User: Which sequence fits this backbone?
């Protein structure tokens, strides 16, 4: 026993000696590092003899002697725009090639790409479907047979390190996406052959061709141009060198040293907040682009614990732009008299563009039967979902009859409403639903109050992620409808972490009726949504994030989905979309429960004013002032008390 | 025995506690006999309707009208649209619009409205004015429209053939209807919840369910605790060791954590109200077991127990007839506390979203959970959560009061 104690004691002694021995070395290292830094700084100063008045450079960022953490702890309110509802935990990275940055405010490519830091050639405007030049100069053009899209890069466009943005950067970005099989590379790889730089300012995007020599999908070529960021070639090469050519390493790199072209750059982030700072050398202040810098010097996003915390902050004026679902948002100005408004003053308050949809799992017992699906879909009380679950933040199905289109005028014009009017149910049709079931011979045979199909009771769960309050409330209302027509439906709310591993598997048996969002507005819509809702190729695949989660198969709809992208004749297009709508409303593989904005948009005018709104005629979409053309709103903000 | 019961009812604490509890029980039983609506029926299209009497407007128009000449009717009508705040807001606008301050008399409604009509311009944007403020003035302007009119309102119906409006009746400003004469009136004493359900009906039903959950949980917990306590205390030896080992294990793990874990792993589909109740019971028996054991140990060497042993009575007989009666008062008190904590545990679980399934039955915890999800506490919709809190507090208060009362009767050291 004593021996052992002695051993432990001597070990502790040796260990502490070892630690003491290390100490001076560490100090030396630090000294060395400091010396290196000093040398670098000296070098930099020596290397910049051209700069005549270095004093003018000083207002850039917060100055070298200010600690970002300190500044971020008390940002000047009159220079900061606070955003909420995008970021719920600490940022992981800034890598434009990665899809795991957890950096919702900064890096989010897609239909309405978020462009405060990285920029796309064009900005999408969801109000009218236009693609507005950002890095690009003027509109892009198809060649005659729609196989190549050409656009120019603005001569004034610059990276944050001062070098110009070139066509080569665009081409190299695409090459990197393909080489390292990023999400964009895989997603667009089937449709884009190459992206080439013809000269330093001209980019040609060449589509992949099918056997007939036509572009496989010109719509996705069009989408690429406004959805994916342009990344600097030189910086990409640095990143590649650091990753050593390894795809996983490249995609997992947090990219703290990124070079970008946008008006903001990272300033400070931790698990409490994310702060961007304006780049006062931003190229876009050139008259050919915005003509000025964006108004707020800082963009900040406090990381709130939950929806209610963010909501309280909005009420208190600590949040300027809120992308949260706030129940009964109108009470904020009608009852509380707060200077808060939404895109529109009256219901539905926002610009709705997405269609949260309940999918029927066609593998569940009885759900392969059209009568059962139809009866459930007819019985659901959508008016109640919209009034109660969504607190009227959605148009009703009376106002916008159901189809595969979102409520925007552009999409609504793409199908012949009169032709499918008979199929567009409004819901809460309990008697109709019962009649459908009775007719199909699905009745309650054993007297327990629930209907049976071939002797087996019809019993389903209605599922959506826990904490998604409006969806949960909607599922409750679906379940209530089931009870009224004699089909047992119980609700189930697994955590998102669990939910997302189950519904993406084509052969899952756990969820019978489950909710998934649908594509909102974008350059490929409504084609993309038709594909998402019904494309057979997605059915029964594993890890499916593309669509058709219920496993619906219909060869005719696949033909339509193939034909639409290549169709330019408007009349034919309307014909095809009408047919797609007809099939969707007849077979009912899934049913839309409500309309929902792409991004919720509630603004507080305690500090800033002149936010974009529906009636101001500026055509700036309500997308947080960050997404696509919505960023134009940042240039028009004004202080309430200048 | 009779004497003890008399003694119990002489305790004011117990009587008050019991009275509150009985009243709640009576409401739970009698209310559904009078109001037979399904508590989960969604009646309101919209969330959180305020408490009040809802009179069907269409039927109101059809009802017999009475003329009442009330002096302050016009003033009330004006005040409802043009209150103190609105007058000040109008003054602020007029000043910005360049009307000299001395011309504005905010008490003179007629003049103020005239000034407003002449000066309000929806297109003008004053420096520093927000769009929220402009929208507010637009709403105010719309609500002031026709405020001073004394004309009757015309009720017209659309002629199906011609599509024209045909005058059907006139509603004059001093027309009244008697609420009892209107065909459809719904009283919502506590308004509606986020689903548009009648809060009071739901609350009564939820109280019943919660009491049931508490009762089941209490029964399960008390019977497990009592059985294990009696066995380990009386038999002793290795039986005592094994039972105490298990009990101590359960004591070390916080029971609420255990409860959360079990509820989570059961999965929502299996979580009916009774399942939740049984789970709560299974996680809260430990202290009862320990306390019963301690009492039994002090009892087992008493003379009457030894006498019973000598008479050849079986273990079961001795436990039931010679030991149980002595600890019965404690067990009853423990049972009451278990009910109370069972109800609180259900509420706690449901607020975390781990309670019973929502579609089945309302419970107090679920009502709280949904009120929180829909931000009732932030939006000031007190009727959606405050009554629930009051009921939970009352149940727990009455049961604890009864317990304290019993304690004073049975525990000689506490007697006055």
Assistant:
């Amino acid at each position: 026993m004593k021996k052992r104690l002695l051993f432990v004691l001597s070990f502790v002694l040796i260990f502490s000696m070892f630690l003491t021995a290390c100490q001076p070395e560490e100090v030396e290292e630090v000294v060395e590092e400091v010396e290196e830094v000093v040398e670098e700084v000296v070098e930099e100063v020596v290397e910049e003899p051209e700069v005549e008045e270095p004093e003018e450079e000083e207002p850039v960022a917060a100055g070298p002697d200010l600690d970002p953490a300190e500044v971020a702890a008390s940002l000047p309110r009159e220079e900061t725009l606070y955003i909420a509802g995008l970021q719920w935990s600490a940022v992981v990275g800034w890598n434009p090639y990665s899809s795991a940055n957890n950096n919702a405010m900064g890096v989010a490519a897609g239909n309405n790409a978020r462009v405060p830091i990285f920029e796309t050639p064009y900005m999408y405007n969801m109000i009218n479907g236009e693609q507005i030049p950002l890095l690009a100069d003027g509109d892009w053009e198809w060649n005659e047979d729609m196989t190549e899209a050409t656009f120019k890069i603005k001569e004034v466009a610059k990276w944050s390190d001062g070098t110009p943005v070139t066509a080569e950067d665009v081409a190299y970005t695409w090459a990197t996406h393909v080489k390292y099989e990023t999400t964009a590379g895989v997603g667009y790889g089937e449709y884009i052959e190459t992206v080439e730089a013809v000269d330093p300012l001209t980019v040609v995007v060449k589509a992949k061709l099918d056997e007939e020599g036509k572009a496989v999908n010109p719509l996705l070529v069009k989408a690429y141009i406004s959805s994916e960021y342009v990344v600097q070639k030189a910086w990409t090469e640095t990143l590649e060198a650091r990753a050593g050519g390894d795809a996983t390493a490249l995609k997992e790199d947090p990219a703290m040293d990124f070079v970008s072209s946008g008006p903001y750059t990272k300033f400070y982030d931790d698990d409490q907040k994310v702060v961007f700072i304006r780049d006062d050398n931003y190229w876009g202040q050139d008259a050919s682009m915005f003509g000025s810098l964006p108004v707020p010097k800082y963009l900040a996003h406090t990381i709130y614990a939950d929806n209610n915390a963010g909501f309280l902050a909005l009420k208190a004026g600590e949040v300027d732009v809120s992308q949260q679902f706030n129940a009964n948002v109108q009470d904020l100005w009608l009852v509380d008299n707060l200077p808060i408004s939404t895109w529109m003053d009256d219901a539905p308050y926002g610009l709705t563009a997405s269609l949260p949809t309940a999918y029927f799992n066609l593998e569940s017992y009885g759900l392969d039967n059209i009568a059962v699906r139809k009866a459930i879909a007819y019985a659901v009380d959508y008016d109640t979902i919209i009034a109660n679950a969504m607190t009227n933040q959605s148009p009703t199905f009376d106002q916008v009859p159901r189809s595969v289109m979102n409520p925007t005028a552009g999409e609504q014009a793409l199908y012949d409403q009169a032709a499918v009017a008979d199929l567009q149910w409004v819901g809460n049709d309990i008697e109709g639903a019962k009649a459908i079931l009775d007719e199909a011979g699905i009745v309650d045979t054993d007297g327990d109050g629930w209907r049976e199909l071939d002797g087996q009771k019809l019993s389903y769960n209605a599922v959506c992620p826990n904490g998604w309050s409006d969806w949960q409330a909607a599922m409750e209302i679906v379940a209530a409808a089931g009870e009224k027509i004699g089909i047992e439906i119980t609700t189930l709310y697994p955590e998102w972490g669990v939910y997302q591993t189950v519904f993406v598997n084509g052969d899952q048996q756990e969820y019978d009726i489950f909710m998934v969002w649908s594509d909102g507005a974008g350059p490929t819509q409504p084609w993309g949504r038709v594909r998402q809702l019904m494309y057979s190729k997605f059915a029964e695949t594993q890890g499916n994030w593309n669509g058709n989660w219920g496993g619906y198969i219909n060869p005719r709809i696949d033909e339509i989905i193939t034909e639409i992208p290549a169709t330019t004749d408007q009349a034919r297009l309307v014909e095809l979309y009408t047919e797609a709508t007809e099939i969707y409303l007849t077979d009912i593989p899934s049913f839309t429960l409500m309309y929902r904005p792409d991004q919720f948009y509630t603004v507080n005018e305690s500090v800033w004013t002149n936010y974009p709104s529906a009636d101001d005629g500026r055509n700036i979409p309500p997308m947080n002032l960050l997404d696509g053309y919505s960023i134009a709103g940042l240039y028009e903000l004004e202080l309430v008390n200048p | 025995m009779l004497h003890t019961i008399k003694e119990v009812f002489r305790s004011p604490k117990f009587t008050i506690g019991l009275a509150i509890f009985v009243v709640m029980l009576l409401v739970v039983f009698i209310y559904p006999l009078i109001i037979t609506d399904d508590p989960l029926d969604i009646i309101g299209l919209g969330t959180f309707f305020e408490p009040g009497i809802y009179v069907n407007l269409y039927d109101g128009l059809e009802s017999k009208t009475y003329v009442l000449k009330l002096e302050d009717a016009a003033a009330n009508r004006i005040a409802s649209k043009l209150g103190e705040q609105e007058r000040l807001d109008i003054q602020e606008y007029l000043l910005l619009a360049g009307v000299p301050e001395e011309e504005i008399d905010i008490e003179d409604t007629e003049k103020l409205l005239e000034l407003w009509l002449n000066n309000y311009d929806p297109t003008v944007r004053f420096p520093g004015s927000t769009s929220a403020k402009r929208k507010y003035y637009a709403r105010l302007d719309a609500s002031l429209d026709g405020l001073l009119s004394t004309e009757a309102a015309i009720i017209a119906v659309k002629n199906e053939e011609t599509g024209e409006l045909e005058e059907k009746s006139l509603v004059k400003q001093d027309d009244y209807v008697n609420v009892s004469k209107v065909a459809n009136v719904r009283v919502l004493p506590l308004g509606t919840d986020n689903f548009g359900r009648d809060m009071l009906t739901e609350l009564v039903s939820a109280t019943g369910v919660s009491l049931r959950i508490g009762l089941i949980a209490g029964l399960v917990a008390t019977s497990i605790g009592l059985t294990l306590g009696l066995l380990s205390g009386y038999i002793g030896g290795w039986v005592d060791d094994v039972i105490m080992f298990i009990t101590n294990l359960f004591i070390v793990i916080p029971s609420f954590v255990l409860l959360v874990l079990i509820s989570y792993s059961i999965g929502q589909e299996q979580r009916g109200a009774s399942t939740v109740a049984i789970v709560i019971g299974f996680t809260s028996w430990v202290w009862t077991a320990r306390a019963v054991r301690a009492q039994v140990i002090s009892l087992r060497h008493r003379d009457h127990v030894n006498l019973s042993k000598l008479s050849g009575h079986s273990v079961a007989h001795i436990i039931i007839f010679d030991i149980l009666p002595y600890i019965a008062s404690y067990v009853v008190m423990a049972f009451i506390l278990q009910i109370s904590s069972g109800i609180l545990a259900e509420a706690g679980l449901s607020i975390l979203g781990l309670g019973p399934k929502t579609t089945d039955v309302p419970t107090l915890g679920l009502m709280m959970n949904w009120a929180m999800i829909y931000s009732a506490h932030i939006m000031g919709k007190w009727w959606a959560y405050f009554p629930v809190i009051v009921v939970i507090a009352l149940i727990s208060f009455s049961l604890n009061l009864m317990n304290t009362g019993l304690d004073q009767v049975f525990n000689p050291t506490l007697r006055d």
